[in-house]
Specification:
This protein is 34% helix and 32% strand. It has 122 residues and is α+β, with helices and mostly antiparallel strands. The chain has a single domain (3-119), classed as GTP Cyclohydrolase I, domain 2, CATH 3.30.1130.10. The longest helix is centred in the middle third of the chain and has 15 residues, at 73-87. The radius of gyration is 16 Å and the shape is elongated. The relative contact order is 0.22.
Length: 122
């Protein structure tokens, strides 16, 4: 069984979306991450070297979301997952949720979201 490091609703202002207005105006997105890894040694030794930095993981996700433009939040989620798995050797799996509360949908709703889970291959 794997343990989890959770990052809830990291707010970013970005310009993702299909519509030209989304690129011009931008909007708020929320990123939530669930990192799966073995934290037993980190907890036993009280040593960050046996874990991973949630600040570094949040920073990676924030940087990707704010420095690049994606037409689909699915592509944003995939990029965060792939780059996090490359950057953090202890990471076994990562769930990425992208909430888009201001989605341009002509209906009354709180927002839309995409959630993916990716695991380390090999």
């Amino acid at each position: 069984m794997l343990d989890r490091i959770l990052i809830h609703r990291l707010a970013v202002f970005a310009r993702h979306g299909l519509l030209p207005e989304e690129e011009v105006l931008g909007q708020r997105f929320y990123l939530s991450l669930e990192a799966r890894l073995d934290l037993r040694e980190a907890g036993t030794r009280d040593d960050i070297a046996a874990s991973m930095s949630y600040a570094d993981l949040a920073g990676l996700a924030h940087r990707i979301a704010t420095e690049r433009r994606f037409r689909l939040i699915e592509a944003l989620a995939e990029t965060i997952a792939a780059e996090a798995l490359d950057a953090f050797p202890a990471l076994v799996a990562l769930t990425v949720r992208i909430d888009k509360p201001g989605a341009p949908v002509p209906l009354v709703l709180d927002g839309v979201a995409v959630e993916i889970t990716r695991t380390r291959r090999g």
